[in-house]
Each structure stands twice: as structure tokens, then as C-alpha cells.
Amino acid sequence: MTNQLVLNAPFKADHVGSFLRPERLKQARLQYENEEISAQQLKQIEDEEITKLVEKQINAGLKSITDGEFRRKWWHFDFLGGLDGVEFYETDKGLSFKGVQTRAHGIKVTGKIGFSSHYMIEHFKFLQSVAGDSVVKFTIPSPNMLYYRATIEEGIYSSDEELFQDLITAYQGFIQALYDEGCRYLQIDDTSWATSFSEEGITSLKERGLDLEDALQLSARAINESIAKRPNDMLVTMHICRGNFRSTYITSGSYELVSETIFGRLNVDGLFLEFDDERSGSFEPLRHVNRPDLYIVLGLITSKHGALEDAELVKARIAEATKYVPIDQLCLSPQCGFSSTEEGNILTEEEQWDKIGHVVQIADDVWK
């Protein structure tokens, strides 16, 4: 892996990171939960399935390789629960999506947040060991997800400021440790921005004592300060999501109300944005992109169902986006991962790989 190759990321054909869990892996996780196999036996199966996944990604033409989040139940809780002072626990009810509810899991802060070590460092090391010369992309949730999703036990923090200081320091420690093991492409996933896409979400912010501008400043600060000490040759992108569970979503709305912040105040190298249906609004908010070194990854291919988009219509939408952002700063991907939780979206593995192939082929045609 060369630094120059990483500097070409996000790649013209990229992806958000999670893939459908193979049936063998699902069965193994169930057996482990039922105490029918050991943790070591589960890890062996995870290792084998991740190795197969890496080969499939390479064969599909992807240049950034992930572990598909195969070791995780959730895209965010598993990571956050590995920080010092944070615990994964069973809740009274799950998260509400449109027409469906997740399993009743959550995270709670039971002590001062910190980073002393983290089990996902080993996940990265294994992925890198089987990825060959491909660029390894590691995905983690945004620090904002802890603030918006965690239950904070009383008496631990006297203010949001105190909590954010510890949270940012913990993220800085993890990112440096990941870099020291060889990570040069990090993706941060964040659904908190979507709270500001709708009146319903803005009302929920007010219930937390935040107005829209306060919330945007807080979220931007958490991202910027968490990545502020990253070495110059580590590329960091962010995926802004509207929710993804069993092909459903949490919220809708345009990027307009957050556009000046995400396009003008975030110090990331690229943004993965959802533009796969009418819920996403138009490309007009892209007019606020004011940096020639900020890459915009257009999520025009949906991961929520298996039907392939008309390639010519996708190309036409890319051309439409060039009214606001030069073609060299644009890339293409699915709008989200295929399996943000271990349940996965409602499509087959074959359809999933057809989607990835579609992204690669369209990108090859557009950026010849």
C-alpha cells in the first residue's frame, strides 16, 4: 500500500463499508450466544468469512477494503462500548425506524470516558493482514453518536463541555493507535446531522436544550477536534446517514439546513452523502462546497433494495451534480452500507454484489 494510493481515496468507486452477514456467520453468532461454541471458535469463523469477503471486494473492483463490520452487531454501539467508561446493555425498547424497531440494545456512560486500549485495534490488524496491497478502510461511529445515543449516569459529568473534552481525547487516542498499526484511511459514520434535516428533528434538539446552530457547532467541534491530531498522511472521510435498518430509515430531508457547516466547517477529506431517493433533496446544497480538496461521494445507488438503477440516469445525476462541484471532486458509492446492524437490509448477497459491480462499472465509464 502506497501513500499515493491512499491519497487517491475516496476512490471514484467506493462504498460505505458494511456487507450482509453470510448465513454461516449468523449461525455462529447465534451458537455463541447460546454458549454452543467458544469465543475462539466464533473468531475463527469470523476470520474465515472476512478473508472471503476481502477477496470478493477485490474481485468486484473495489480499491478500498473493509471487514464488512462482520464482527459487529451494530455499526456504532459495538465501538462506543469499547471505550473506557462506556458499557453495552439491554434497554427497555429498541430504536424506532419507519415501521420497525431494532433490538433493545444501547450504551450507557458509567464512568469517565477514556481510551486505554480498544479491542477493535485487533480487528484492524487482522483485516490488514489479509488485504494484500489493497487500501484498508476502517469504519467507526462519530463521537456525536455517544452524545446523542448514550444514557449518561448521574454524577459522572457536570456539563456537556466536560463530557466532550473526555470524549474527544478518547477519540484522539484511538485514532493515533489505529494509525500506529498502519491505518491510513478512516471513515467516521454519523447519523446525528440528520436530526437537523426536519422540523421533527429540530424539535427533539430543543428538548435537549439545543437550538439548531448550537447543535451544529457542537457536532462540528466533536469531529474537528477528534481528528485534529491525525498525521498528515491519514485520510479521514465521514458518512452522513439518515438511518439504515432492515431497508428502513429514521428521517428524511435535504442537507440545506446543515450545508454551510458540513461543507464549510468540517476538516474531513471527503463526505459520503445519501442521494438515492427523493428523501434526500436536491444537489443544490452542494453550492456551499468551498474547498478544492473536499471530495463528495454521491450515494446514488441504494443499498435498501436489490433492483439496479438505470446506469444512464445515474450518469445524468452525476452530470447534474457538476453544476455545483467539479467532476474531479466527485465519486460514486451506495448511499449506505448493506448491513448497518447484523440483521442486514432486505436484499440477497448476489444483489448486493451486483450493486457493487454497478458502482464500479458506472464509475469506470464516467471517470475514464
TrEMBL record:
Enzyme Commission number(s) from the entry: 2.1.1.14
GO MF: 5-methyltetrahydropteroyltriglutamate-homocysteine S-methyltransferase activity
The entry's keywords: Methyltransferase, Transferase
Organism superkingdom: Bacteria
One Pfam family named in its UniProt record: Meth_synt_2
GO biological process terms, semicolon-separated: methylation
Coiled coil: none
Annotated signal peptide: none
Positions of the Cobalamin-independent methionine synthase MetE C-terminal/archaeal domain: 15-342
Xref: NCBIfam families: PRK06520.1
Name by which UniProt lists this protein: 5-methyltetrahydropteroyltriglutamate--homocysteine S-methyltransferase
Source organism (scientific name): Psychrobacillus mangrovi
Species lineage: Bacteria, Bacillati, Bacillota, Bacilli, Bacillales
